[in-house]
Design a protein that fits this description.
52% helix, 12% strand, 8-stranded mixed sheet, homodimer, alpha/beta
């Protein structure tokens, strides 16, 4: 494919970072955002003040809030929060989009659908790949070495996308486990909230590493019950993304957990940010999925109780630590 | 077993922490160290100033440098750096030790033996378990929730040890994969050095998460070639220990890597610490093992070149990032 012209749908931190990356490779980039006012600011200030502050956006990147401007692109990169994905894609139905790379990480509440399922449902017969991995946007935007996985059931399309995204500082691996890559990217946010709660309670890296390890076990278990491959969860889009999300000071999901560990309620925390914290809704979806597939997810269950039932976070950790002793 | 009287062999940070933990459970603890002068300080100051500063050691814990004082204990906990293990155990041969829990993490240079193999070689027919997991000593000593795995080929002995160590803040799982638990505990230190180098170069959590993920893949590969189970490497003594070692400001192996990433040589760094940094020697052993078992270990190989051949760390990372693109 030629891929001369690439559309980015979504003006968050990660969409903007990918716009920068692809622009640096010589592609013609048009980035679309839903709010005309904010798009005008992006275009004039050449900085995404809310979601990627401090990073200069070159003149060559086009910004628009007009769907017509996204006609006839070679590739569409979708970078919209999961709970808004359906609403946004409805606007793009008329465009006959041929190829999509999804950056969206989450599971739709209610339908329990993965991003690629929503894309297929709304856009029909398109090639879809999911790009995921340990990639905090402001690090990638500053040229910090980053690795990701690009998954598609169409392995030729995955390889084409690999060519599009690959740079010396952005290493892309391919995978054919679309289900596993999407579930890993979504479910890791629950565990990152748990890791943040541990930070907020003043616990150390021992506790966080235990949460990360046992958390990976339970999200892998759910993934496998849903048809994903175990290996994917041990890879960049599973363990890798989980690790960076649990470690980074800039991860919103970890941050939200930390605030809750310090004693705030979910409402307090969400009221103070314009950011979408994917893990909050994903926790809800994952609890439903764990029941549906009859998979034990003790950490996810406790996080659900902490977020939605105002369970005391310290009690939640103690209960996890004092389950009956057993084999690993 | 009664386990009324427990001997701790080794006066480092982790041996001291385990002494504290077991003392809090009501066991009679005698901690042995090789240097009489330092043992006298431990005993009088009631603080391990070099290796566990700031933590009060109760009067009930006995300190000794006399091997005779370790006669007829019910359980022996060995907490000696791997390269000194053989030398220390030679002194204890006459004691007819029945049961050993090893806390030692490393692979002996030259013989390429695991701690339990050295213990068997020197002490003959003893029950052996290895205790390992994400457990930075000064966190565990301060009561931070910690989880570990206790592995033995004798599953009844593993369960007995679980009873001995378990507290509300120290959760112990059992395993029968002694090989996997020992190799995970040793090999993770190489990857932690790599993670530290990334920190020292000013890279972010994206890079560190990638190193952790790809590092786990290669140490798992070697472990499996040596008879370990893959699952063990995804557990607390593999991934868990790796994660805490890569994250913690207090991990010596990560710290050594960070200093090297900032431009120091191995000699500079080791000259400035009394601590044993296990990963340095383990890197050497692992390179030999990877050749012996014909297993590809690209990160380990680069760390070897950085540590022992003065390869530039930035070049090492760039070479890892620009290997030919491929499937994950």
């Amino acid at each position: 494919m030629s891929n001369k012209d690439i559309a980015i749908i979504g003006d968050g931190g990660w969409g903007t970072t990918i716009a920068l990356l692809l622009h640096s490779k010589g592609y013609n980039i048009t980035l679309w955002g839903a709010f005309n006012n904010y798009i005008k600011i992006l275009s004039s200030k050449r900085e995404n003040l809310k979601f990627l502050p401090g990073v200069k956006l070159p003149e060559g990147i086009n910004f628009t809030a007009d769907i017509e401007d996204l006609k006839n692109k070679d590739l569409y990169v979708v970078a919209v929060p999961s709970q808004y994905l359906r609403g946004v894609l409805k606007k793009f139905r008329a465009l006959s989009i041929p190829r999509v790379v999804s950056l969206t990480k989450g599971i739709e509440v209610g339908s329990l659908k993965r991003p690629s399922e929503i894309i297929s449902e709304l856009l029909g017969n398109v090639s879809i790949a999911s790009l995921s991995g340990p990639s905090i946007s402001n690090e990638t935007a500053r040229g910090i070495p980053t690795t990701v996985t690009i998954a598609s059931t169409d392995s030729e399309f995955a390889r084409e996308c690999q060519d599009v995204f690959l740079t010396e500082r952005f290493r892309a691996y391919t995978s054919n486990d679309l289900v596993g890559v999407e579930l890993g990217g979504a479910l890791k946010n629950i565990i990152a909230i748990a890791a943040g709660i541990s930070d907020g309670l003043g616990f150390g890296t021992n506790t966080k590493a235990a949460i990360l390890t046992r958390g990976l076990v339970e999200i892998t278990r759910l993934g496998m019950a849903m048809g994903a491959s175990k290996e994917t969860f041990s890879g960049l889009s599973g363990l890798g993304d989980l690790a960076t999300t649990c470690m980074s000071r800039d991860s919103r999901n970890r941050w939200l957990g930390e605030e809750i560990g310090k004693g705030k309620t979910l409402k307090d925390v969400l009221g103070n940010t314009e950011m979408v914290v994917e893990g909050v809704m994903t926790t809800k979806s994952a609890c439903e999925l764990s029941k549906k597939h009859d998979v034990e997810m003790p950490i996810t269950e406790k996080i659900y109780e902490v977020l939605y039932r105002e369970k005391n976070p310290r009690d939640a950790v103690r209960e996890l630590m004092t389950r009956s002793p057993k084999g690993e």
